[in-house]
Known about the structure:
Elements: E1 2-6, H1 12-28, E2 36-40, H2 52-67
Amino acid sequence: MLVGLINKDQTEPQVQEYLDELAFLAETAGAVTVKRFTQKLQHPDSRTFVGKGKLEEIKNMCREKTSAL
């Protein structure tokens, strides 16, 4: 799973481009990207990087993916 933050200095298309590059690098290393998450925040949360709601969404997706294995 890839996570990107859209801050005041970036546009959503820019962040998607960054995630495209990250996905390519991950694939080159043998990883498979199963989901992308983005969130608009002024700055990353110092404890979790994303907000509480987005963190719950990511956790739920992780649970779904691991239970499907």
